[in-house]
Amino acid sequence: MVILKKIKASTLMETLVASVLIVVVFMIASMILNNLFSNTIKSNTRVIEAHINELQYLYKNEKLTLPYYEDLDKWSVEVKTFKEQNMPKVLFEANHMETKQNYSKSVYANN
């Protein structure tokens, strides 16, 4: 029979301190990940970008009458004409009502 060497055991206090440190590290990591995910969700503009592209398509094919106003989820969408350097342009603008985020595109007006 083989005799095993004795391994020095740790005290209860050392075990508790190590456990607390591990828990604190995981808590901080989970708070950081939660913050990253919530910021990613708040700054996601894919839906409104797709809707603005759809409105541009409708405008180019003369299916959209200007000025155009719409509320989409929590976004306020506005399409209007303006002049820049004596050239008529169309501004597609969306504003988020809660986060005050702004997304806009402009194209040259149809003749």
UniProtKB/TrEMBL annotation:
Keywords: Membrane, Transmembrane, Transmembrane helix. The chain crosses the membrane at residues 12-33. It comes from the Bacteria. This is Type II secretion system protein. It comes from Flaviramulus basaltis. The lineage of its organism: Bacteria, Pseudomonadati, Bacteroidota, Flavobacteriia, Flavobacteriales.
